[in-house]
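NADH-ubiquinone oxidoreductase 21.3 kDa subunit
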Amino acid sequence: MASGDDQYHPKDAVKEGVNASLVTGAAGAFISAVQNTLTKRNVGAWGIFTRTGSTVAVFTVMGGAYSFTKSASANLREKDDSLNPALGGLFAGAAMGLKRGTTPAVLGFGALTAIVMGAYDYTGGSLTGYKKDKEIDEFERKQQLRKNRRIPIDETIAQLGEGRGIYAPGYDERRKERIKESYGIDVPAKSSHS
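Predicted structure tokens:
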């Protein structure tokens, strides 16, 4: 085991598995109710369990298997990395494949879910992209990126020229001289740009 902040803290796999089973079981009951509502025959309120009850069972088992396996593998390996969600996804996908009743379905759904869940965790567990360091404030990170990409004013003026809100130091004096040479007009001393 590592020392300091990298030390692994065990998780209660049974508790997390039960909690996930309850949450996904409730989601499965909702989806089963929708399925029951959309059937052509009126099967009554108990159709949630009698006609489309396998949906509730599959959702309950998938959630529990995923969460329990993820926590148990983390406890056994004493590591919290992307392999744990992949293993949890393998068991959850296999539970989904059991509804089909064929070995290729069990293996295929298990492999697909393992790849998706492992990749999702590996890329930072976010649909918006990988977060490099969770300790750094996002605003501070963006400010630092802006500072790193700033171009010196001399280089900007060399590329774009002066005007349009971009003025080098001493612009007013150079402008007065150009107007005096070109038009013979004395411009009063006013420093609006410096």
